[in-house]
Write a structure and sequence with these properties.
The protein is an alpha/beta fold. About 45% of the residues lie in helices and about 15% in strands. The protein contains 14 helices and eleven strands. The protein has helices at about 1-15, 45-55, 55-60, 75-80, 95-100, 145-155, 175-185, 200-205, 230-235, 240-260, 260-275, 280-290, 300-310, 330-335, and strands at about 35-40, 65-70, 90, 105-115, 115-120, 135-140, 170, 190-195, 210, 225-230, 290-295. It has a six-stranded mixed sheet with strand order 2-1-3-10-4-11, with helices on both faces. A five-stranded mixed sheet has the order 7-6-8-5-9, sandwiched between helices. β6, α6 (about 145-155) and β7 (about 170) form a beta-alpha-beta unit. α1 (about 1-15) packs antiparallel against α7 (about 175-185), α2 (about 45-55) crosses α11 (about 260-275) and α7 (about 175-185) runs parallel beside α8. This is Aliphatic sulfonate ABC transporter substrate-binding protein.
């Protein structure tokens, strides 16, 4: 297992270092010459991985050349979008909302999955319920990320706060999901708010305890764990390319909904290409039950998450998400 951890850590580190490109060449109103697509090597990014590996995006994009980059966290994804090295892709709603509220050029085109956040604690950590987090430590993929807010708002309701705001719960952020495994194995962290399949991996392979199931996490059943985003500029300049990509997204979502076995095999193959090792089939199958692949966006859940983030002082101003979501392109494609 240590070999797997080392390989996955290296792969994801390389992903962070190589998350760059030349930017797309655009033709106002028509198709772009190329498109840079981003996604994460997580299970709830199934539509992205399947769409890439099965050629659904490339089939719809036609002569538009697609370049694909995987990211270890939302912060790096947003940085690539901001610098023009990324045109469109899949990211958690947290980083997207945070970027939008700071004036960033970003728009949500639709959703890709709901659920997929699991709160787990290392065996021997002394954590059996959320009430036990006082004086303990936890990690998340990013600071103020989707999973971070989901956990901290539940802790706040119990009178517990992270050390970020003077509380007794230590938070370590920007921990790539695969690296959480090494931290649990070495006893460097007590708990994690983890995306799938990494949460289930910690449970099945390292004996971690599930503290809060995915559907009991804050907004667990309605909050999109993954949204499809682009910049408003790219959308305005390349509506045909965006629509083509969204048709590939639609096909990918429908395929994953109808072909579970092949979807999981495709995802495991993709992870193997990054790590040279495969996740146990039981981990993937059980993690799959902790999420829903869907295009339903639930804007009200996005607003509720943003309100929670503000309440937790990740934001300085009350969040107004007006203009953040525009599902009109995807809605039209779904109705075709």
């Amino acid at each position: 297992m240590k070999k797997w951890l080392k390989a996955s850590g290296i792969a994801l580190t390389i992903a962070a270092l190589t998350a760059c490109g030349t930017g797309s060449s655009t033709t106002s109103g028509g198709p772009a010459e190329e498109i840079n697509v981003g996604y994460f090597p997580n299970l709830d990014h199934a539509a992205a991985i399947v769409g890439k590996e099965k050629g659904f995006f490339d089939d719809e994009l036609g002569d538009v050349e697609a370049e694909y980059t995987h990211f270890p966290n939302g912060n790096d994804f947003i940085e690539a979008l901001e610098t023009g090295n990324l045109d469109i892709g899949y990211v958690g709603p947290g980083p997207a909302i945070n970027y939008f509220l700071t004036g960033g050029d970003i728009v949500v085109l639709g959703a890709a999955a709901n659920g997929a956040t699991l709160i787990v604690a290392r065996d021997g950590s002394g954590i059996e319920t959320l009430e036990d987090f006082g004086g303990k430590s936890f990690c998340t993929p990013g600071n103020g990320c989707t999973h971070n807010v989901q956990l901290e708002i539940m802790l706040q309701e119990l009178g517990l706060e992270s050390n970020r705001v003077g509380g007794t719960v230590e938070h370590q952020s920007r921990i790539a999901p695969a690296n959480m495994v090494a931290m649990f194995e070495q006893g460097q962290i007590d708990a994690a708010a983890a995306p799938e399949p990494w949460g289930t991996y910690l449970v099945e392979e390292l004996g971690a305890n599930v503290i809060t199931e995915w559907d009991q996490v804050f907004l667990g059943e309605t909050l999109p764990s993954v949204v499809v985003v682009t910049s408003k500029r790219f959308l305005e300049e390349n509506p045909e390319t965006v629509d083509a990509f969204l048709r590939g997204h639609k096909t990918a979502v429908e395929y994953t909904q109808e072909n579970t076995e092949d979807t999981l095999e495709t995802i495991n193959d993709a992870l193997f290409n990054l790590t040279q090792n495969r996740l146990p089939e039981t981990v993937l199958s059980q993690a799959w039950e902790r999420m829903v692949v869907t295009t339903e966006t639930h804007p009200e859940a996005l607003q509720a998450w943003a309100d929670a983030s503000y309440e937790l002082k990740f934001m300085d101003k009350e969040p107004d998400l007006d203009g953040f979501v525009d599902t009109s392109h995807l809605d039209a494609i779904l109705a075709e």
